[in-house]
Each structure stands twice: as structure tokens, then as C-alpha cells.
Amino acid sequence: MTATVPPNSPTPRIPDNGRGPAELAPGDIPADSRFVNEDLLPVPLARRRWTTYNFAALWVGMAHNIPSWMLASGLVALGMDWKQAVLTIALANVIVLVPMLLTGHAGPKYGIPFPVLARASFGLRGANLPAMIRAAVACAWFGIQTWIGGQGIFVLLGKIFGGWADAARIGGQPWTLWVCFLLFWALELAIIHRGMEALRRFENWAAPFVIVGALVLLVWVAVKAGGFGPLLDQPSALGWGADFWPVFFPSLMGMIAFWATLSLNIPDFTRFGAGQRAQVWGQTLGLPTTMTLFALLSVFVTSGSQVVYGAALWDPVQLAARTDNVFGLLFALVTVLVATISVNIAANVVSPAYDLANLAPKLVDFRTGALVTGVVGVLIMPWKLTETPELYIFTWLGLVGGMLGTVAGILIADYWLVRRTVLHLPDLYRRGGRYWYRGGWNPAAVVAFLVGGVLAVGGSHSAPGKGPFPEDGLIPVLKPLADYGWAVGLAASGALRGADGPPGHRHRGHAPG
After folding, report:
1. Residue 74 exposure: Cα atoms within 13 Å on the Cβ side
2. What pTM value is reported for the model?
3. How far lies 236's CA from each of 80, 233, 252, in Å?
């Protein structure tokens, strides 16, 4: 990746007084500091130039992907009707937007990525705890998205050339599917290798392209169907009574968890923002609106497929494969490629690349971190995580949401309540400063994380034969909290960290905070 701060550049000093954007001056950080490399340094003010459109395009590009298209299908499979499914998705994205904007504030103001922001609350060494949790989640998501994208390529190329599904099997899958998966994996890493500016340019044109592709699919199905059909008239299997709420709340937490990852590491992107207005308006216009409209679009297209083919085809790749038009198949193939790459690189490679660089700044740079992400994303066997809606929504997304909500609560409370958005940039990179605490760890943040994490995920449970957890929960007394993991983790850890009060003198030097 292009260096964030060119070596020996004569950067003018911007006062670090908490009132406006700040950047480092030469000499602020010892050259031999083990807590810095060029990718972790603040972005200079001159290079913070992402606009409202750039942030909105980022979200449009990330929201328009196959897994988010299929979120509504997962909820319908659990018994909701289309209105309940779309409402759940819309509400979840309005809720998750709030922590997204709160953590994103530090980006334009200080130009720092997520793991450096986490140093203020967890300590220079302690920041590796939330960073590695976020990196592990991102690696898993990267694998899931790459597997789904590889499947899309496999299906569409198989339709064009024929015979792919009949190839010899390796590990239970045709070898041609593995080839598509690995080629797609390599293409993603090749793009991110070019750095964040290349990603910004890619997202700018990917967003409108994917929108056009989705609308083309809608028009195509509508023409073949002569209108939209039975799916929109199907009643909910749950109703709005006692059967609905036990499904709604864990589903809502699962939908929040879909983007809870980005609510942590959004400073990785907002650090390039031209100002707070750009990140606030860009994200507000891009996230909840796009996800809601995309859910509606998936419902309408699936409804049309019910009329045309007699079965609801929730997977857009399977639907596009029904056409015999070679041009249509190629267009669908390119759309799937662009849609999956745009979300996977932005959401699931950028963050762990920074997080791994934070773990060992002198050994790992952005490019190395991205490569490690790609390798781990394959090793977690993503094809297993997406086998059933119960495993995907309740177990995977629910557990992830609880842990990420806990970290988000600490970051938000520390930045907004404890520090009143005032950070001292040089001390984020040097031993012995105000963020060193005790040996590089902040005991207050660690305690808040442990308490919030146990409350959020301690009651995790699975139906018999449906998941890895005991039926009565890991900690039975906490089972009632499990369906609200993200909210419980956010509130509990945030309350504990916020109760610590303004930093004052006790946050200086080695004092605990």
C-alpha cells in the first residue's frame, strides 16, 4: 500500500487541541518506536479528501452483494413474511448506523485507523485484543464472501460452457468449483494490493454498476412474469403475536451483526474523509437506505421468480443462470464479480490488514496483513458456516454480534464520554505516554470487555441438533440475554467504561484509567 505519510515529509503541525482536525509534526514520534509503521500513522490533512459521494458509494458497493441480497430469504425461511423481513433489516441498519457514526468521528478528526483508536481505550498493547477479534471476524467473512462469489462464477460459467458440475470431486465439491474459488480469491488480493486509493476508485464505479445490474435483473423477471405474484401475498407463518417476537429479536441482533464489524473499524475509511459532514451524510445516505431498498429488491425479484418458475429463487446467481442468453449470463457474471469484490475487499480485507499491522508494526505492513487475511479466510472453511439459516444467523452472526457490540461500547464510551473526543496523537504511538497505562494495557477497558462479553455471549444456546452450544446455554442463567447479545454487550461494556469519567490527571503516564 502507498505509504500513509511519505518519509521525511515536511508536514506542518496542526495543534492537537481537540477542537479541529489534527496531524503529527516531524519529530513527534521517535523514529525507532515499535508501535508505528507508515500504514498506521495518521493520514495527512492534504490526503483526507473522501467526499460524501465516496462514502455513499462505498456503502452502496458493500451493501449490494449476494449475502445481503439473501438476508431477507433467511428471515422468510425462519417464518417471517416479506414485510416483516424488510422491516427487521431496515430497523437493524438504522440502529447500527449510530455506532458507525460515533466511531467514525475519530477518522476525519485524527486520520487514524481503528487499531490506533483502540489504543486510547485499551492501551498500546491492549489494543491488540479488540483488533485481533475484529481481524478474526473479518477473515471469516472474507472466506464466506469469497466462497459465495466463487460459487456464483462456477454456476454462471458452468451454464455458458456446460459440464462443470459433473467434474471429478475433491473434498465433496467439483474441482472446477475449487478453481473458481481460488481464482476469485487471487483476484481480490491483487486489487487490494494496490492500496486504499485504488479501492476508492473501484468503489466509485462499482456502486452504480451493481445497482444497474440488480435493476436489470428486476426488469427481466418482471417482463417474464407479467407482474409480481404470490410471494407478496404469502402470510407470515409467525404472525405478529407470541410466535413472532422470539424469532424477531435474535434475527434483529443477527442483522445488526451483519455490519457490526464495520461499526468498529469504520475509522479505517473515515480517516480519509474531507470532514465530518462527508462521513456523516455519506454513511447516512448510503447504509440504511441501500440495505432496505436491496432487501425490497430481492423480495420483488424472488416474487417474480415464483411466478415464472413455480419456485422462489432467493439466490440471484441461481436465478440469472436460468437464462439461455449468453450476453445475459456474461453480464450477470461480471455483476456478481464486481458486487462481491466491492464488499469483500472494503469490509473484510482492509480492517484485518491494519489490525495485523498493529500486532507487529515492524514486521507486518498493509500488504502482508491482507495476504494473511486471504490465507486465514480459506483455512476457516467458509462453506461450513453458511450451510443452514440457524447456523448462519443465530450462531455465527449472533455470537459475532455480541463480541463486537462489547468492543464498540468500550470504544464509544471512552472516546465520547471519557475523553470528550480529545486525543493526544503522539502518545498513541509511543511507550510511556498517557495511553501506556500499566505495561501497555488499560485494566478498566479489559474488565469492561470481560464483563460485557460474558453477559453478551455467555448464554449462547442452540436448538437440539442445530448448533454447537448446549440447549440450556453456556451459562444457563444468562440464556435470556443471548437473543440480545449485541445490545447487551454494547450497553454493559459502555456503561462500565463510561463510568470511569473524564480522564483528568489519572490518565497520564502509567496510571490506570
Report:
1. 26
2. 0.80
3. 5, 9, 17
CB half-sphere exposure, 75, CA atoms < 13 A: 35
200: nearest Cα among 63, 62, 55: 55
Contact yes or no for 236/245 (Cβ under 8 A): no
Are 21 and 45 a contacting pair, CB within 8 Å? Answer: yes
Distance between CA 33 and CA 236 in Å, rounded? Answer: 59
Q: What is the pLDDT of residue 501?
A: 61
The set of long-range contacts for 224-229, using a CB threshold of 8 Å and a minimum separation of 24, is: 224/304, 224/308, 225/303, 225/304, 225/305, 225/307, 225/308, 226/307, 227/307, 228/300, 228/303, 228/304, 228/307, 229/303, 229/304, 229/306, 229/307
- For residues 333 and 314, what is the distance between their CA atoms, to the nearest angstrom? 17
How confident is the model at residue 2, as a pLDDT? 37
The one-character DSSP state at 508 is: S
Residues of the chain predicted below pLDDT 70: 1-20, 31-32, 195-200, 230-231, 234, 384-398, 465-467, 501-513
Note the pLDDT of residue 170.
81
Q: What is the dihedral of CA 420, 421, 423, 429, to 10 degrees?
A: 130
User: Phi, psi at residue 39, to the nearest 5°?
Assistant: -80, -20
Closest CA to 119 of 27, 5, 196, 34: 34
The 3 state secondary structure assigned to 293-339 is HHHHHHHHHHHHHHHHHCCCCCCHHHHHCCCCCHHHHHHHHHHHHHH
For residue 186, with 0-12 CB atoms within 10 Å meaning exposed, 13-18 middle and 19 or more buried, which class applies? exposed
**DSSP β-bridge partners for residue 23:** 14
The model's pLDDT over 278-292, given as tens digits with 9 standing for 90+, comes to: 999 999 998 999 888
- In this prediction, residue 91 carries a pLDDT of 93
CB 97 within 8 A of CB 287: yes
- Specify which residues 169 forms β-bridges with: 174
